[in-house]
Amino acid sequence: MVKICCIGAGYVGGPTMAVIALKCPSIEVAVVDISVSRITAWNSDQLPIYEPGLDEVVKQCRGKNLFFSTEVEKHVSEADIIFVSVNTPTKTRGLGAGKAADLTYWESAARMIADVSKSNKIVVEKSTVPVKTAEAIEKILTHNSKGIKYQILSNPEFLAEGTAIQDLFNPDRVLIGGRETPDGLKAIQALKDVYAQWVPEDRIITTNLWSAELSKLAANAFLAQRISSVNAMSALCEATGADVSQVSHAVGKDTRIGPKFLNASVGFGGSCFQKDILNLVYICECNGLTEVANYWRQVIKINDYQKSRFVNRVVSSMFNTVSGKKVAILGFAFKKDTGDTRETPAIDVCKGLLGDKACLSIYDPQVTEDQIQRDLSLNKFDWDHPVHLQPMSPSTVKQQVGVVWDAYEATKGAHGLCILTEWDEFKTLDYQKIFDNMQKPAFVFDGRNIVNAEKLREIGFIVYSIGKPLDP
Ligand code: NAD
């Protein structure tokens, strides 16, 4: 029986391994992590992450051929294929701070693999890593090898949170990069054999290591760039009376462009887009490609601009001050169908409003009060950030922020309402009831363009939708 071990039981490691276990009953899959609380949650009915369909997949395999464990070394030493899916955040200090990927977790995982391995291993980069990371990993492993042979593969993950299970069942592509040596090709084939159990052969792409590593950064940069492109256009729409939805529709009809990922919004978030573009910027700079670095840096600048534009719009619409006013925040996760708040635009928007002394009443169906309080209190490393945010002390956050259990409670007595996540339930709220319970004039700021602005205006709301005429 082939044994797989995945180091890192997070948003990627957990779901990807659960799907491999489901689709490959003859493979034993162990997902290991140093976080005891995460592993305990994976072994309970309350999984550590919310992802539609994940519960069912885990329930079907857990205890059969899928195991979650903190016995990292034991499972690593027993495995034939080791996926490494640890976090690779942006470095916050030292060389490359604010841009380069922090590979501390990766390096310690690699050193541990070298320490405990007693047989040949295939080591798979599942985390998103800078191009040429495999070279560094190879050095660490081979210099500590005790005669054991390692093959490094790059197999970046393209799942999107909120649709992870669907994406894993039916991926657009599976990318495997490896060395073109006989042993490298054998390793590529071994990993192909795993995916081939449910992924059509023509969707499994093999490349050299560096192309695979760079493709993941490139894919995220392209996706984020599309959002920044449409968001940049949304500002121009507001200035000219054009409607960004109509522009997106017209532009997306061009088959060379296509209709996906063309929704204007308050900005992109999530743990990956910004981090991966910063990483790309850093790699470009290290290679002397300043103009290319500047090009990609602009994607983040536009994203920051969009968030600050939104905050400014809220404040200026509400008579240039939100001081002491109650503002309801509907949605805090960075997108719908996830409880993940990493880099969510809601953090910057809320901090911006808190900076103007608003009182926030926040509701998100999947985000806890603790998460929100922590996210808003955290003084994160700020890279050239135009939404100039004051660090929020935890006590300010406690005083000015309330987290409530539904949208009606959040909006009761509020002067304004901001929609920051596109949860489906926000589309079908009883907006008449909400209007009746709000201060007048009652404002709606739709940061996701999900409500019917015309209907809301008929009720009596003053409505701002991203990239749409203000007074149609
Ligand atoms: P995560 O923070 O949710 O999970 C990482 C896990 O690794 C944590 O639970 C941590 O405790 C564990 N870990 C760290 N060092 C360890 C060690 N030495 N031994 C055992 N466990 C260790 O991160 P994530 O969102 O799953 O992302 C993981 C990687 O995948 C990142 O490189 C990310 O960029 C990439 N990625 C993420 C997504 C996404 O949607 N979240 C999509 C594609 C790729």
UniProtKB/TrEMBL annotation:
Keywords: NAD, Oxidoreductase
Catalyzed reaction equations: UDP-alpha-D-glucose + 2 NAD(+) + H2O = UDP-alpha-D-glucuronate + 2 NADH + 3 H(+)
GO biological process, alphabetically ordered: glycosaminoglycan biosynthetic process; UDP-glucuronate biosynthetic process
GO molecular function, one term: NAD binding
Binding site for NAD(+): 8-13, 33, 38, 86-90, 127-128, 161, 272-275, 342
Pfam families xref list: UDPG_MGDP_dh, UDPG_MGDP_dh_C, UDPG_MGDP_dh_N
Residues covered by the UDP-glucose/GDP-mannose dehydrogenase C-terminal domain: 328-453
EC number: 1.1.1.22
Organism encoding this protein: Turnera subulata
Name this protein carries in UniProt: UDP-glucose 6-dehydrogenase
SUPFAM superfamilies (alphabetical): 6-phosphogluconate dehydrogenase C-terminal domain-like (SSF48179), NAD(P)-binding Rossmann-fold domains (SSF51735), UDP-glucose/GDP-mannose dehydrogenase C-terminal domain (SSF52413)
Pathway noted in the entry: Nucleotide-sugar biosynthesis; UDP-alpha-D-glucuronate biosynthesis; UDP-alpha-D-glucuronate from UDP-alpha-D-glucose: step 1/1
Keyword Oxidoreductase: yes
Keyword Chloroplast belongs to the record: no
Active site feature: C272 (nucleophile)
Family: Belongs to the UDP-glucose/GDP-mannose dehydrogenase family.
Cellular component annotations (GO), alphabetically ordered: nucleus
InterPro entries named in the record: 6-PGluconate_DH-like_C_sf, NAD(P)-bd_dom_sf, UDP-Glc/GDP-Man, UDP-Glc/GDP-Man_DH_C, UDP-Glc/GDP-Man_DH_C_sf, UDP-Glc/GDP-Man_DH_dimer, UDP-Glc/GDP-Man_DH_N, UDPglc_DH_euk
